[in-house]
Specification:
Length: about 140
Amino acid sequence: MKNILNIENKLLKANRLSAFENSDWKSGVRNKAGVYVIWSKRGNKSAQYVGETTSLIERFKDLGSWRNHTFTRKIKNKYNLNTPESIRSKINSLYEISFIEIDFGRKEIEEYLIYKWETHKHPKFNKSSPRYESAQKNA
């Protein structure tokens, strides 16, 4: 449990990127596995989405396509946006991203954070994992 709390703390303190701010917004992102959080830039600046991936750079490229990323698709639908440019502009104006590289246990970290933060009114675009919720009730 201590390791999960350390990872959560690292994500909370990690630098945040403004997606699509300029052409090299993801220049510091490597082709490594990791966990990422999309945060609101406004209000309480809470976590809006938690994800995990085998390639952070490839996943961040997917963020620009509503066909490839759940968060982007939900932004498209929520704001009735029709072009990739309008979707990217909306994401840039409302959200920022933090991430950490992590090789093993990404899915478990993602599920833990969704469950924990959703309980405290954070993620808005993730679905809770029934498997994780069941495990917590039986723990």
